[in-house]
Amino acid sequence: MSQDWEVVIGLEIHAQLATRSKIFSAASTSYGSEPNTQACAVDLGMPGVLPVLNREAVRMAAMFGLAVGATVSPRSVFARKNYFYPDLPKGYQISQFELPVVAGGELLIEPEEGEPKVIGITRAHLEEDAGKSLHENYDKMTGIDLNRAGTPLLEIVSEPDMRSAKEAVAYMKKIHSLVRYLEICDGNMQEGSFRCDANVSVRPRGQKEFGTRTELKNLNSFRFVERAINFEIERQIDVIQGGGKVVQETRLYDPDKGETRSLRTKEEANDYRYFPDPDLLPLVIEPAFVEEVRASLPELPDAKRRRFVEQYGLPEYDAGVLTAGRDLADFYEAVVAAGPDDAKLAANWVMGEFSGALNKAGLALEDSPVSAAALAGLLSRIADNTISGRGAKDVFEAMWAGEGDADSIIEAKGLKQISDSGALEAMIDEVIAANPQQVEQYRAGKDKLFGFFVGQVMKASKGKANPQQVNELLKQKLDA
Amino acid sequence: MAGIFGKHTICGNFRALLPMRADCGVLFTSPVHIHGEILMSLSPEEVRAVAHLARLAVDEQRIPDYSRDLSRILELVEQMQAVDTASVEPMAHPLDMAQRLRPDEVTEPNQRERFQAIAPAVEDGVYLVPRVIE
Amino acid sequence: MHELGIAELARGLDAGEYSSEELTREVLSRIERLDKTLNTFITVDAEGALAAARGADERRAAGQAGPLTGIPLAHKDIFCTNGLRTSCGSRMLDSFIAPYDAAVVERLGANGMVNVGKTNMDEFAMGSSNETSYYGPVRNPWDTGRVPGGSSGGSAAAVAARLVPAATGTDTGGSIRQPAALCGITGIKPTYGRVSRWGMIAFASSLDQGGVFARSAEDAAMVLGAMAGFDERDSTSVEQVVPDYSAALDQPLKGLKVGLPKEFFGEGLEDGVRAAVDAAIAVLKEQGAELREVSLPNLGLSVPTYYVIAPAECSSNLSRYDGVRFGYRCEDPRDLEDMYKRSRGEGFGAEVQRRILVGTYALSAGYYDAYYLKAQQCRRLISEDFRKAFEAVDVLVGPTAPETAFGLGERADDPVKMYLSDINTLAVNLAGLPGMSIPAGFADGLPVGLQLIGNYFDEGRLLAVAHQYQQHTDWHRRAPEEQS
């Protein structure tokens, strides 16, 4: 991108709140059921039905507000956003307009490139999700599934503070991590539990006014967010440099083509006719409720990372990786608690073999075949020299394959290291005796041959000799 | 809610409504306020525009009637403008109560068959509508 | 039997003079005989009613009967009835078999009342004459050339014609009180939030409130006591104990401070109505009530305020009727927009459309502040007037309607004139107060209603005042001549 242009990005993130029931009804929010089996009379907008607000959705919104240093509004109001669409059963969406439940907050991001930066959070408000339109499988018709209708959403609106696609992704990832830490959203982007729209504009560097923005939709992965924004930046600059004007519009990202396209509808300028929902009363949040929520807040990612550095003596990098998700951080701490007194060893294994195996198997942490306690058991055997690092990898593989715990696998496979110096000395003596020529060369100064002797001893022990001990004993004997 | 909450709108302020709404584009063109004096009548064009917003197919022959009726109703409504309400808190609700909160419990059973028995068009458990073009 | 009120019927049932099934058969046969002319019912559920009546008789035999067990009633067709068509007076819901009961239906059913059917009403409760019903107008039993009032005209006329001893209604701007007045019966709209709105099809959510029609305050007290009370399914339902209305009926009028809002007695009040209302007030005074003139200076604002708020809320509430999940869908829609527009254009009648248009306009971009917000501010001014008045008096009294029943078709073409006839009732809904209308004599052979307005949650006092008045008058016992 040209140095002459500045990019301005704001994100609107929709996080489905992980409540059991819907925001205004007692129907289930679980994903993937048969169409319309989780749409009750309220969700269907049938005549005479009425909404009642779910306490848990309010609590979760308040948690988010406190986690980003925002104000949890003592009084907020639900409004109706009126428009017709077949997956919007009542002809209006219950949302919040003038008075959102969370106002003003901020978040520190650390993009892959560039400096850490504080991004403002304008507001977060509660609203209900719509249903789904199914465009395939129905001849000349669209099918409507309202299972999702009424699922609680927290819409998190950022300030237009981001200046690159990388910053936008860093912000989105940070919010993603945060809502999962708070356990208020499962963060599943494939299932649409965590969605993002981006408002993007460009302006000549130095210009005060914002350029005309477009809104990008259908950004259902971090990668798409980055690609769509970068495409849109180039497109807008091209339009302006070509003498044209950017049109304020909604654009859809097409991941197959890697481009955005105008979402043209016959619809005139939106006129949502917002007004306070007369079926709902003002949401009043008492200070005691806020304090209760505050007391229940878990340790947040930044604080946890600082603690990992201090408490476990981990490098910043390790602490960052381990605390990116609450589940991994918890797993790590469980390993440390049950394992040997070597936090760095645990970090290496959790970030290395363990995470690698999870990724390779495409498993979520909770589905791992190796528990924290089991991994800790393996690490204990490394720390007490029962097995070598090499041997440990074999043991881990066997554990992953469900062959048992570390000790039984070591036993069964005979992987126990030989650390008995008497036995090792005998082997070493044999090796020295069998290779007089090499001994002579070594002693004459050919140091490189030391490795040859180590290899011979390991071979003689069938790989079970403790390498460190072999080194020490060999040195003693050869240098004697 | 795309694009409605810009940097400069302050949440929690009723007054913030106008700039936000202006942002949405104004449908109707007839003059509303001229220093408190109101010229209020709805042209047939405007009636058609409102009818579209409300997704109502209004019989063309009825439009002049609606135009006249609506204008008369709005004239009636204009009586409010004579009252100074600058310092009056809007009243959304007769009772000064707060929203009650419901425990997060799933108690609604699946009643799809019952509900869909009265639907105009369903297939395999989904409601059918003429194709939606995206 | 049809001459008897609920309290008397309950005594007869208890004494075994007749069974609920016999009583219900009598009700059904009167409806069959008399309703062709009056058109008070949209749906009569003879089978369901007889089954419910037999159930009530069994409960009575088992010694489990309450005071309302086995008493027939009718529900305004705005209350959802499980398995029974609930049309709301509209073509839109002509095919709508509700899959659940309204809270009111549930509660009265649980009290053993026997639902005989669903009464006619203005379409979606929008009207003051019952002429906007898809099922044709209801006729006033006192003069079948005249309207019964609206929107609960079917319920009011059915009770007035002695077809049923009681019927439910809803009141958004006077839809219980005005038809009660025009039909010469007793009707009460309690405080907003007193009766659950669950399953009661919404017109204007912040104004709608369910209530009841009966022959007397005594009967109304029994039914209201059974239908009122907290419901967790309605966010606007009030968590407050419902007092025993029947037990409080005997409070004497002595010392009662009665406010007479001068605005109720100004221009536009027909002479005959004025004379009847003055006479009724004189009865209250004779019984020891103290009369005071009070003022509701912003009462005149209630018409414009109401005709912004109610249409605005209705325009949104009626968006769910889109032909997708229930209700009317037009034939062979070309595309989605055509389906929306024709389903709604063909499913809704002219008055409903008119109000949707007004409300849509009032909420649309650039007009919100000038209309909706302004109306909400006026609403507060109106409510404040009442608050001040109730600092000085216990109840407010005046005419329910400034005139008696007008002729069918007389005002159908003039919506504004129709709206202005609601001037005495609208403000009560805007403030959310309880209001009542009781028979107070006749003008030129047509009933006149006396309106009683109480402070919040003071419907017990309204019922007591009405009952005391009815102890000293017999207007509520007058019945129209039968015309079949």
Your description of this structure?
The complex is a heterotrimer of chains A (480), B (134) and C (484). Chain A has 480 residues and is of the alpha+beta class. Chain A folds into 3 domains: 5-290, no CATH class; 301-413, no CATH class; 421-478, Arc Repressor Mutant, subunit A. Chain A has helices at 55-67, 165-181, 222-241, 287-296, 301-312, 316-323, 326-338, 343-361, 372-383, 389-400, 406-413, 421-434, 436-443, 449-460, 467-479, and strands at residues 5-16, 53-54, 71-72, 75-76, 78-82, 92-96, 102-109, 117-128, 132-134, 141-145, 152-158, 194-204, 214-217, 250-254, 259-262, 275-276, 283-284. In chain A, strand 13, helix 3 and strand 14 form a beta-alpha-beta unit. Chain A starts with a strand and ends with a helix. The mean pLDDT of chain A is 92. Chain B has a two-stranded antiparallel sheet. A two-stranded antiparallel ribbon of chain B has the order 4-5. Chain B contains 4 helices and 5 strands, in the order αββααβαββ. Chain B has a domain at 6-80. In chain B, strand 1 and strand 2 form a beta hairpin. Chain B is an alpha+beta fold and 134 residues long. Chain B starts with 16 loop residues before the first helix and ends with a strand. Mean pLDDT of chain B is 76; it is low at 1-39. Chain C is an alpha/beta fold. In chain C, the strands form 2 sheets. Chain C has an 8-stranded mixed beta sheet with strand order 4-6-5-10-11-9-7-8, with helices on both faces. Chain C has 15 helices and 11 strands. Chains in contact: A-B, A-C, B-C. At the B-C interface, helix 1, helix 2, helix 3 and strand 5 of B face helix 9, helix 10, helix 11, helix 12 and helix 13 of C. Strand 2 of chain A pairs parallel with strand 3 (101-102) of chain B.
